[in-house]
Amino acid sequence: MKYEQKVGVTAVQLALALLASSAMISAHAQQAQDADVHVEKVYVTGSNIKTIDAETASPVQIIKREDIARQGVTNISDLIANTAASSSQGNLTDISGNGSFAPGGSEVSLRNLGAQSTLVLVNGRRIASFGFANFTEVFSNVDSIPIDAVERVEILKSGASAIYGSDAVAGVINIITRQNFQGVEVNADGQKSLQSHTFGTNKASITAGFGDYANDGFNILVNADVFKRQSVMWSDVQQYTNPSLISTSSAYGALSTYSHGNLIDGANSAPLPGCDPSLIQGGLCKYNRSQQSQAVPDANRINFYSTGTFNLGGGTQAFTEVSLSRGKTDYIAPVPLYGAQAPVTWGNPSTGQPLTFNYLGLSLNDPINTTGDDGSELRFRFLDAPSYNDVVGTQYRVLGGLRGTVNAFDWETAAGIMGSKVTSTTQGAFSSSGFIQEIGNYNNFYPNSNPNVGLSYNATDPNFFNQPGGYRAGGQNSATVLNTLFPKFVSTGQTQAEFVDAKITGPIYSLPAGQINVAIGGELRHESMILGDSNNLQTGDIVGYGISEANSSRNIESLYSEFNIPVLKNFEVIPALRLDKYPNLSSHFSPKLAALYSPTDSLKIRASLEHGFRAPNLIESANSKKFAFDSGVQDPLRCAQATQLSNDLYTAANNPALTPTQASLIAARALAVQGNECSVSVPDQVSNNPELKPETAKSYSLGLVFEPVKGYATSVDFFSIDRSNVIGLQGAQQLVNDAATGNTPAGSTVIRRPLNTAADQSFSSNDPALGGQNDFTVYGVNSGSLQQIVRAMQNISEQKTSGLDIAFQGKQSLGEYGNFREILDSTYTLKFYDTSVSTLSDNLVGSYLIPHFAGSLTLVWDFKKFSNSLRFNYTGGYNEQAGLPDTAWNLAGCAGNNLTAAQCRVASNRTTDYAISYTGIQNLTLGLNIINLFQQKAPVDVKAFGVGATFGTNMQDAEGRMLNLSVNYKFK
């Protein structure tokens, strides 16, 4: 069922049509104005009124082309992540997207308020939303923007709903492309780790410009960009793991008994035939997990961008923009496991009913079971399974328009279409029907009574894992068998938007202090989103996988006005008002009032106050189906007990009286117990809510710009944003924590399995490894394991944040030794509250991933044909605890995991980058960037690493010192 508004002639549409037509008629009736010698006014992000002053009433950070080159970044995502106001930690990127609902895309956000509150523009207009939603989050994929076509990036660090619309609560990132470029320019660069000689990234582009607008009356720019990144497996870089991380895990580096195959049955345990003898340790076949775990996926992208401007005469100009992007990201996932694991619970989206996949032990009569016991566990890794997720995405934007001047008024109108389509093809997860066909019916079982394998069930089928013509554990299997057991499943996403906009700006009245300037405009936009999944996902046939489906569209209408009123020669007031109309919601007004006061030539004081809002997106409010899995959930009723049991099992495994096989089995069980309860994968069913209210926001800023000496400018801006009715979902961990104390919110449920001491996957009522003790009594286990959570989209919370943006730019002439510059970009966050995480009395600044301070200082020395720069990057430390309710990572929780108070905190991170470029050869620029010059290791983050982790490291540690070499040649 589509969620849409019927198209009709409304007052807003009529006003837009009149605005556009009147501007065009006046333009053709007006002859070109005589050119005056004056300083050209330009649009600065955050206003629809031109200005000659880059320092406006709203704080705007400008990153110029040469500043981008000095950072050695190869994409927009990394560029924005390097800014102080960016909340890059935890953002979705195409590197981290495997297993998410939006693989292959990269989002950006400001102020820790999420991608949906940060508006991304190219030349002042929106780009398409990514074809996939990140579960319920709709975002712009910045990987589709070719960085070599960028002239500068302007970041508005205050809300701008009154200017740009409802999704600009946290700020705006406006990417300005190169204008009036002539000639041909070729650029190529390559990047690689000097430590591991991996993490290879290569990029090449060609930019061509034709025509000089001033002399020829036209200019056309064309840019083509090719990007390639090589895959890196953790096994390639595991050796660079910080020793301080390894010390937190007694299991680190341990090989897994989930391998070519092992029969687990006490003293009768043995590897399956065919195991490589070099991999047999302690009498069992072992496997290195890291060799099938990907740190960075392979990626290939081709971006095309073109813009043209044409002088039509009479003060009128035509313009066009065309952007096309195609990207392919190839993810590799660990292959499936089989053993005495907790049952997997997921759901059938077509019926809404839960499903359970049971891991069964082998019956006594099963030919593969050579132990002579009933219920022996087969511990197996499907090493021959295809296991990949290939994501192919396209994105486009095509627009055309007219702009011109009528007397003192500038006008502009444009229409366009933009969209994104993404296809994700995955293989490597069990098909329920395929498993039954090729291996056996996992629903046919009875509890075993074998004390050696008391944590599993027995298959009643004597041909389990031995079906005629079926899958052979440890043997050769045909492509037909593998494709039946592990079929392909496909998810597709498509977004599209068509728009028309128009605006007119200019002076309307003269005051003693100057002219009042006004901007009036509006926009019509039609948005649609279609998310779909293959039939085997829709029917729940892929074990453990969910879906995200929607088919919805809507019309959005908006009108806005903005005034610049010079109250005094040195004091201007800028009021603005925007009207947005979304279907099924009342018309919403977003007002803004800003002011700029210049008491002296060297001092400017600025302030702004704004009310904004964000309407529910097409996923949050439209009919949709969502089933997912939340991984890494700690069970507050069973994790501490499981940790104690795991520690006792590791102690027992070190008993010298045990055989190597017995010790290996006990250690393997210790690892499984920890994972079963302290890093649980929980099925998660989410429902949309058509009754959602829009989010509302109040934001204000107050700052000053001080330039006591020409060339030395400092700005300090205080910001405050208060969001109410924030749409979202209570976090899975928080929901589980609340349910443990009896505080489950309305519309949400935590479902647990009944406590069954005879069939529990972690604890035993007669534990042979610990002298036959009753684990339930010894460790106080009174609750069954987690089975499923159910959540509903809600206006769930309130968020408040405030802080200071501090910037400095200085420039000195060193005479014959060139010029020297300093650039400081920093943010000090004072407060951050989020009631979906904690209470409004719990300031989350200093808690997990929210540091007080982040910033960079860049020193640039230009000398003759060389430009050198040093960039010092700093991110403050924070606690592992994510708010007071996160008891798993407070001091007591850390102590329960055998962690010290120091290990329960992430220290500050400091890195240094160096760049040098040489222009001594005509038309040629050579560049060298060294990122993380001193190979500084990242601060220890035990939470991200994982308690009991068996492999892995921080990406910064894995990359070490990175080298980027670039060459740029300009043909004249």
TrEMBL record:
The keyword Kinase does not apply. Residues 55-172 form the TonB-dependent receptor plug domain. Its main location: membrane. GO terms for cellular component: cell outer membrane. It is a multi-pass membrane protein. The keyword Transmembrane applies. Residues 1-29 form the signal peptide. It comes from the Bacteria. It is found in: Cell outer membrane. This is TonB-dependent Receptor Plug Domain. The lineage of its organism: Bacteria, Pseudomonadati, Pseudomonadota, Betaproteobacteria, Burkholderiales.
